[in-house]
Write a sequence for this structure.
């Protein structure tokens, strides 16, 4: 079945019905006429049940990285992006922070009966645009339709495959005392943007989600310091959560510097008003990296030369002494407090 774009007016003003998930004519028209044309590429074009890659497309000596994630953000659209942007960027970033070059993605759509096709088309175009920006292809997928009220409009599952160059290694085992913790910009933008978009909050906060594919920035960092020790994207649970994940895995103490944390004034103000902590707010275009002290200046300079790293900052350090696996925050006044994991999330349905 070859993808055949359907004229835009054929879908405008109409909604998803249960027939679009039944496997018959309506479903074939949806896949071939709306979904596949948005992602058109040579791997997807045959519309088989799988995408096929010749061995020669995988660089010699590389290893494969594979990830998957699901996206359930509410609302579907928010300042700076939508659920489609999140799905592509989140999966690309999960590969990239492992040192992989993202290459191929899948797209699983769970559509709620009654979803406007205009909304679906917008999300598909967001996914295609983000994939082009990241240099990846969406090569296979699946579509299901559930009854009205069962899916909050639209859920997306994505999986991604990337290749890791021979000799490139990252992970907590690579980290040493004295390593510096770097972030690439302001924290909490995505969480506040989604919060402001929720009608029940009636908030007017001029902030956009930071949703972006980070693979280009990460390759710039590797070019400056090929032995980057550890990388993680600061998504659900924010910087505090990924810092605790590192500390627990490495059994090393990590100290954050409150005065060094980059937080936009509008985000800080919203957090103070609502009793939130930006350390725990979700980000979709921010990473944390641990680098050797001798590489720190080079990595910072490289990050600041990239559009997604202009506000990069050193925000912490791995300590040689202290309680194993503990994350602390040193305040601007010199006091310290423990930065622990939250039992739940400050904001539900954020990504």
């Amino acid at each position: 079945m070859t993808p055949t774009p359907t004229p835009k007016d054929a879908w405008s003003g109409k909604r998803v019905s249960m027939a679009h998930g039944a496997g018959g004519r309506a479903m074939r028209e949806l896949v071939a006429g709306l979904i596949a044309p948005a992602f058109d590429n040579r791997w997807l074009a045959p519309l088989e049940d799988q995408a096929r890659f010749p061995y020669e497309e995988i660089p010699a000596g590389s290893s494969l990285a594979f990830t998957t994630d699901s996206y359930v953000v509410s609302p579907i659209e928010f300042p700076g992006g939508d659920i489609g942007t999140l799905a592509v960027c989140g999966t690309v970033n999960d590969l990239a922070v492992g040192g992989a070059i993202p290459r191929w993605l899948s797209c699983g759509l769970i559509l709620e009966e009654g979803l406007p096709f205009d909304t679906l088309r917008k999300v598909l175009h967001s996914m295609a645009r983000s994939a082009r920006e990241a240099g990846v292809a969406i090569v296979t997928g699946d579509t299901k339709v559930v009854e009205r009220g069962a899916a909050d409009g639209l859920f997306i599952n994505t999986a991604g495959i990337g290749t890791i160059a021979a000799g490139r290694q990252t992970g907590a085992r690579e980290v040493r005392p004295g390593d510096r913790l770097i972030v690439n910009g302001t924290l909490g933008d995505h969480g506040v943007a989604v919060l402001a978009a929720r009608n029940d909050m009636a908030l007017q906060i001029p902030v956009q989600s930071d949703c972006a594919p980070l693979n280009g920035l990460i390759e710039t960092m590797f070019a400056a310091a090929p032995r980057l020790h550890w990388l993680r994207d600061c998504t659900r649970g924010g910087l505090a959560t990924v810092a605790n994940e590192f500390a627990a895995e490495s059994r090393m103490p990590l100290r954050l510097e409150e005065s060094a944390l980059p937080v936009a004034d509008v985000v800080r103000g919203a957090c103070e008003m609502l009793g939130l902590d930006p350390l725990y707010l979700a980000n979709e275009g921010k990473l944390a990296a641990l680098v050797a002290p001798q590489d720190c200046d080079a990595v910072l300079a490289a990050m600041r030369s990239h559009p997604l790293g202009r506000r990069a900052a050193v925000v912490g350090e791995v300590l040689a002494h202290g309680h194993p696996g503990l994350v602390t925050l040193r305040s601007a006044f010199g006091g310290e407090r423990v930065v622990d994991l939250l039992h739940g999330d400050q904001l539900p349905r954020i990504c």
Q: What stands out?
A: The chain has two domains: 8-45+55-164, 172-338. The radius of gyration is 21 Å.
